[in-house]
Design brief:
Elements: H1 24-36, H2 41-47, H3 51-54, E1 56-59, E2 62-65, H4 73-85, H5 88-96, E3 123-124, E4 127-128, H6 130-148, E5 162-166, H7 173-181, E6 189-193, H8 198-205, E7 213-218, H9 225-241, H10 249-252, E8 253-257, H11 260-266, E9 273-275, H12 292-319, H13 326-341, E10 345-351, H14 358-370, E11 388-390, H15 402-407, E12 414-419, H16 428-451, H17 455-460, H18 465-471, E13 479-484, H19 489-510, H20 521-534, H21 543-555
Parallel strand pairs: 5-6, 5-7, 7-8, 8-9, 10-11, 10-12, 12-13
Antiparallel strand pairs: 1-2, 2-13, 3-4
Helix pairs in contact: 1-4, 4-13, 6-12, 7-12, 7-14, 12-19, 13-19, 14-19
Bound molecules: 6-O-phosphono-beta-D-fructofuranose.
């Protein structure tokens, strides 16, 4: 039975679509898995010594090595056939064309339009969105130049020294991650406040002068309770610091949103609002107005390079045959491990301290997109979907959780991301010697994870027999290695788009909607109810929640 990628029933309809797991292409991959499941990477390299010279790809400035994966060319062929059977090319085309592939919200998914050239045209509901995209980018650039150049003045006439982005989820993780990654390119101080825990706001406001602080309130919906709470408290802080004159607000608050009404209700002048659209998902929004803090930090030219990097990978996804298509191959290798080996997690280990927040950013991108249990037709999926994504920078992780990856009982496929030349403010010799250490560690981990160390090798070192098992490394742990020369804005954009498209392709294979996030709603509703109960009547709770709530009431800060 063939899977029909064009069939798009309404979200609540019963299933008429055959599951991807019922296709002949799925069965072919399963057969290959049965023959390869017990084959060690040592064996694969022994049988195919030149695989490192062959099993790699490039996209933009990224060199992507996939030789240390538990697969053969035949497996890659079968995985690519599976992608085709799942309608990946059609899904990619539908996304670029602005079709409403976010079916449960009846929305287009067009983060790629945010980085499309000015002279292109993408029509959504009869309207070309590209002029809108560039009009906002131009307004952002003009604003950023004024702030960066000291022309934009605060309430008492002084220029802005610090930008505080207030947002959460996609309205925080993308800009916060990118600001940190591009620290070497930044010429403005930016801070990021996301958590409704007042500690976040308080620690970030410490030492700031309201007269030289600009708040960027980032919220697609402008209803997110954490962001509105933090923004209100920031406004109080500003007014208190500037003598209570509300006329100060327009000079110190701008908004990034799709909700002009909400922005106006909050008291921000909509002239100071930078718009985006419902076809930009929160976790895909760093290239939209949501990236304003990044633009303020690195300048409009740097931000254009960032978008250009994303565009490079967009064009690669759109124009490259599946078998050479790097995000498609990475996605299908992920499917190979998640669905055929049953590995539950995926670690992202950047050997770049500047990319420290990249794993957290990818957690939202991947887990909010593909953490789904029903397909497009509303029926339960027939195979596992998104893995748990996690990670921390190397080499730090080596001294913390790598023990489990090397010798634990769960196989964790890992992405090792290396930047050859870090942009640091240290003498060249010092910088090079650190880089040598860093990259040597990345390469060493890839080898250690793949090949391990056998009991015989341990014994040959004269190790006491009682310790041999403890000092044996099973190996056979797969890694993708991604290398780039420098972490420029463009390279960061390329990395982001690479993972975005990996998520898209996996979601297409699983037949799920990667662009909604209904799973975040229940907790929000319950929290709203409980907030009202803290000073009010008890609601209907289980005994555990009721006890905990009472304990909070008894101990909470008194007015
Ligand atoms: O930008 P907003 O509308 O404040 O939403 C913030 C985040 O909250 C979520 O909706 C989840 O609750 C994310 O998808 C989103 O990135």
């Amino acid at each position: 039975m063939r899977y029909n990628p064009h069939h798009r029933p309404p979200p609540t309809a019963g299933s008429t679509m055959p599951a991807i797991t019922d296709t002949t292409e799925w069965a072919a991959v399963a057969r290959l898995h049965a023959t390869l499941a017990d084959t060690h990477l040592r064996q694969l390299f022994a049988d195919d010594p030149d695989r490192g010279g062959r099993l790699h790809g490039t996209v933009g400035d990224l060199y992507v090595d996939v030789a240390k994966h538990r697969l053969t060319d035949e497996v890659l062929d079968a995985l690519v056939a599976l992608a085709a059977a799942a309608g990946v090319p059609e899904k990619v085309a539908a996304m670029f064309a602005g079709e409403p592939i976010n079916t449960t919200e009846d929305r287009a998914v067009l983060h790629t339009a945010l980085r499309a050239p000015r002279d292109t045209s993408i029509v959504v509901d009869g309207h070309d969105v590209i002029p809108d995209v560039h009009a906002v980018l131009d307004r952002m650039a003009a604003f950023a130049e004024r702030v960066r150049g000291g022309e934009w003045r605060g309430h008492d006439g002084r220029p802005i020294e610090t930008v505080v982005n207030i947002g959460i989820g996609g309205s925080d993780l993308g800009p916060a991650m990118a600001y940190r990654a591009l620290a070497a390119h930044a010429t403005m101080d930016c801070r990021f406040v996301s958590n409704v825990d007042a500690a976040d706001l308080s620690r970030n406001l410490a030492g700031l002068d309201p007269a030289t602080t600009l708040f960027v309130i980032a919220s697609k919906t402008f209803t997110t309770i954490e962001t509105i709470t933090n923004a209100s408290s920031a406004r109080d802080w500003l007014l208190e610091g500037l003598g209570g004159d509300r006329g100060a607000i327009p000079k110190h608050f701008v908004a990034l949103s799709t909700n002009a009404e909400g922005v106006a209700d909050f008291g921000i002048d909509t002239d100071n609002m930078f718009e985006f659209w419902d076809w930009v998902g929160g976790r895909y929004s760093v290239g939209s107005a949501i990236g304003l803090s990044v633009m303020l930090a690195i300048g409009p030219d740097g931000f254009r390079d960032f978008l250009g990097g994303m565009r490079t990978v967009d064009e690669h996804l759109r124009d490259t045959p599946l078998r050479e298509n790097v995000p498609v191959l990475l996605a299908m290798i992920g499917i190979w491990y998640r669905n055929f080996f049953g590995f539950p997690t995926h670690a992202v280990l950047p050997y770049s301290h500047d990319l420290a927040r990249f794993p957290a950013y990818l957690q939202q991108l991947d887990m909010e997109s593909n953490g789904k249990r029903v397909g497009l037709d509303g029926q339960p999926v027939t195979t596992d979907t998104g893995p748990i994504v996690w990670g921390e920078p190397g080499t730090n992780g080596q001294h913390a959780f790598y023990q489990l990856i090397h010798q634990g009982t769960t196989t964790v496929p890992c992405d090792l991301i290396g930047i050859v030349t870090p942009d640091v403010d240290l003498p060249a010799d010092t910088a090079r010697s650190h880089a040598d250490q860093l990259i040597a560690n990345l390469l060493a981990q890839g080898e250690a994870l793949a090949f391990g160390k056998t009991a015989e090798e341990v014994r040959a070192e004269g190790v006491d027999e009682a310790l041999v098992a403890h000092k044996t490394f099973p190996g056979n742990i797969p890694t993708t290695t991604i290398l780039a020369d420098r972490l420029t804005p463009s390279v960061l954009g390329q990395l982001i788009a690479l993972y975005e498209h990996r998520v898209l392709v996996q979601g297409a294979v699983w037949g799920i909607n990667s662009f909604d996030q209904w799973g975040v709603e229940l907790g929000k509703v319950l929290a709203k109810r409980i907030v009202a109960e803290i000073d009010g009547a008890d609601g209907d709770h289980d005994s555990s929640t009721a006890m905990l709530l009472q304990r909070y009431r008894d101990a909470r800060l008194q007015p």
